[in-house]
């Protein structure tokens, strides 16, 4: 019910009623784009934009910079994790040697 | 209409004015005083309005008590106390 | 798929789980009581079960599945009213698929369809408006359900109908708001929650600001979360970090979709078409003040409740049904007396078994039954 799916606007079909076609993973359908059209984003500029589609409406323009930032944070966390593991490894080796293993 | 005023319409409870603690305490004190005054007044009004009825009720109660007391005395006098003592002993 | 696949990466999930485990170890918590985190939104419940997120997490984190499934909290009386409208011969009753199997006291919409009513499943309220355009001699009624996420779509559809002068279209409005319900949950005395995963798609409409009271007055942290497994894991990690550092804030993990200020075009459409009801009845939770909307007088001709007299009866939930306790996180789905026995996805008794966003259906479908029973046996032994 509350789920949405990212799609890319491929054409504007009716600029008055703000109807556009989106491509969601190869599936195309008409949606309403009223919620993502404003002064900063006039209707003709929307083609190529990625939007979150919910029950036939584009509810939000997906922010490419923010998406990249979230992924960067995840990557950093992974790097940090690897670093922490590296830091712990020598200690284990020393401990094992001390125990005469 | 802006997005903000739309939010106010959707969630009125979020936009209740915040009170400063001093004003809240003053309000609370005022409310307690008013409640106490109201209670005192209700008490006074009740006794003022119902005084006659209450006195009559008290008199009737006293009279009934006297009748009962007289009856007990009469019974004790008639039996010289023996009947009651015997019942108790039994 | 772009913006989806990269948030399902298993290796990154493993990293996050390790980070969560390390954070938990450092927190030196009382091990006898698990950290209780509520995901408010049914979409999250669905993802959590679909990707087995619960099974990946350490045992000291307990996910409490909240009330955010609009189909599940719809009271029986409202389903009955919908069926009554659908039974009128002139009506085409259009609904999202989710709502078809919700049991009413007499029948579900699916049964009404089998009995000859013209009930149609649509993907969008705009599809229902198209039905009205194509069938001018019929009355098309759209079953409007959903939270703040879905409200703008029905509001915009009403505005479109007005622009086109379509008079044979109306909405049977059952839209509800999640924010007052979070407050009701926080006020409930039998609940101890340590934090919330915030509903990402509600937030893309309303923004961050309406949640501020949760951190300020109830001192609970919240992280607005996306719906992919990595989004959920990262949000749990962010919540733990807040708890560990003694912070209580409304943070946003889902910044790629949910902007801080929400969507003002969507909010304005909602405000134009809808106004608050004094209260709305939630299945399992009872009546909650200011938690539903109705169509304003100015758009009264698009209001199915005014167009057709509906019985508007209040029907009590079945006695054997414990949906309310599951919704509040007091019991787990598998602890309900009828779970998996009298109540299954094929023959649902309670609303939580109906939608895939309902906690019971999710447990049933994704093997939670076995896990739940195993845990129960382990705790007995």
Q: Mean pLDDT of chain C, rounded to whole units?
A: 90
Secondary-structure element series of chain B: HHH
Query: Rg of chain C, please?
Result: 21 Å
Q: What would you call the shape of chain B?
A: rod-shaped
3D architecture notes:
The complex is a heterotrimer of chains A (101), B (90) and C (381). Chain A has 101 residues and is an alpha+beta fold. Chain A has two domains: 5-62, SH3 type barrels (Roll), CATH 2.30.30.140; 63-101. Chain A has one helix at 64-98, and strands at 5-14, 19-24, 27-32, 50-54, 57-61. Chain A has a five-stranded antiparallel beta sheet, with no helix packed on it. The longest helix of chain A has 35 residues, at 64-98. Chain B has one domain. Chain B contains three helices and no strands. Chain C is α/β, with parallel strands linked by helices and 381 residues long. Chain C has three domains: 5-69 and 179-245, HypD, alpha/beta domain 1 (Rossmann fold); 76-176 and 292-307, Rossmann fold; 323-367, no CATH class. Helices cover 39% and strands 17% of the residues of chain C. Chain C is built from 16 helices and 13 strands. In chain C, helix 5 links the parallel strand 3 (91-95) and strand 4. Classes of the chains: A alpha+beta (101), B mainly alpha (90), C alpha/beta (381). The interface between A and C is large, with 41 and 59 residues.
Summary keywords:
heterotrimer; A: 101 residues; SH3 type barrels; five-stranded antiparallel β-sheet; 35% helix; C: Rossmann fold; Rossmann fold; five-stranded parallel β-sheet; 16 helices
Quick summary of this structure?
The complex is a heterotrimer of chains A (101), B (90) and C (381). Chain B is mainly alpha-helical and 90 residues long.
């Amino acid at each position: 019910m509350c789920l949405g799916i990212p799609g890319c606007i491929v054409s504007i079909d009716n600029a008055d009623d703000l109807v556009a076609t989106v491509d969601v993973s190869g599936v195309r359908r008409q949606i309403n784009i009223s919620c993502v059209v404003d002064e900063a984003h006039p209707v003709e500029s929307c083609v190529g934009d990625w939007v979150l589609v919910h029950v036939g409406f584009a509810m939000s323009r997906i922010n490419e910079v923010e998406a990249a930032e979230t992924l960067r944070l995840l990557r950093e966390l992974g790097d940090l994790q690897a670093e922490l593991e590296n830091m712990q490894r020598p200690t284990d080796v020393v401990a094992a040697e001390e125990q005469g293993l | 209409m802006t997005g903000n005023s739309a939010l106010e319409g959707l969630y009125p409870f979020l936009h209740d004015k915040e009170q400063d603690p001093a004003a809240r305490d003053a309000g609370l004190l005022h409310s307690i005083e008013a409640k106490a005054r109201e209670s005192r007044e209700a008490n006074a009004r009740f006794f003022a309005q119902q005084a006659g009825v209450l006195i009559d009720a008290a008199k009737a109660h006293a009279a009934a008590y006297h009748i009962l007391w007289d009856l007990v005395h009469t019974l004790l006098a008639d039996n010289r106390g023996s009947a009651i003592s015997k019942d108790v002993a039994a | 798929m772009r913006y989806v696949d990269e948030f399902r990466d298993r290796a990154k999930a493993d990293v996050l789980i390790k980070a969560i485990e390390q954070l938990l170890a450092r927190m030196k918590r009382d091990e006898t009581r698990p950290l209780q985190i509520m995901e408010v939104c049914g979409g999250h419940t669905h993802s959590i079960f679909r990707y087995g997120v619960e099974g990946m997490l350490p045992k000291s984190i307990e996910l409490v599945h909240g009330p955010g499934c609009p189909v599940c909290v719809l009271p029986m009386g409202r389903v009955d009213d919908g069926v009554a409208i659908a039974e009128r011969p002139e009506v085409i009753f259009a609904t999202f698929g989710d709502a078809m199997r919700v049991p009413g006291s007499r029948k579900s919409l699916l049964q009404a369809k089998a009995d000859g009513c013209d009930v149609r499943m649509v993907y969008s309220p705009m599809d229902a408006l198209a039905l009205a355009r194509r069938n001018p001699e019929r009355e098309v009624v759209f079953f409007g359900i959903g939270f703040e996420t879905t409200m703008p779509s029905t509001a915009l559809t009403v505005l479109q109908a007005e622009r086109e002068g379509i008079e044979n279209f109306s909405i049977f409005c059952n839209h509800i708001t999640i924010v007052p319900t979070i407050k009701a949950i926080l006020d409930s005395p039998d609940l101890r929650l340590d934090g919330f995963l915030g509903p990402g798609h509600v937030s893309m409409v309303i923004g961050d600001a309406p949640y501020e009271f949760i951190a300020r007055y109830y001192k609970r942290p919240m992280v607005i979360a996306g719906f992919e497994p990595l989004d959920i894991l990262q949000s749990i990690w962010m919540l733990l970090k807040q708890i560990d550092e003694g912070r209580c804030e409304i943070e946003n993990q889902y910044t790629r979709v949910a902007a801080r200020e929400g969507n003002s075009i969507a909010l304005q459409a909602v405000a134009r078409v809808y106004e608050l009801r004094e209260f709305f009845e939630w299945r399992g939770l009872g009546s909650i003040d200011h938690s539903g909307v109705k169509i304003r007088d100015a758009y009264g001709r698009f209001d199915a409740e005014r167009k057709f007299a509906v019985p508007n009866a209040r029907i009590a939930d079945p006695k054997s049904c414990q949906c309310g306790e599951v919704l509040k996180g007091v019991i787990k789905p598998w602890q309900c007396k009828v779970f998996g026995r009298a109540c299954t996805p094929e023959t649902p008794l309670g609303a939580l078994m109906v939608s895939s966003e309902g906690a019971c259906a999710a447990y049933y479908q994704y093997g939670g039954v076995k896990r739940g029973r195993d845990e129960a046996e382990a705790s007995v032994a």
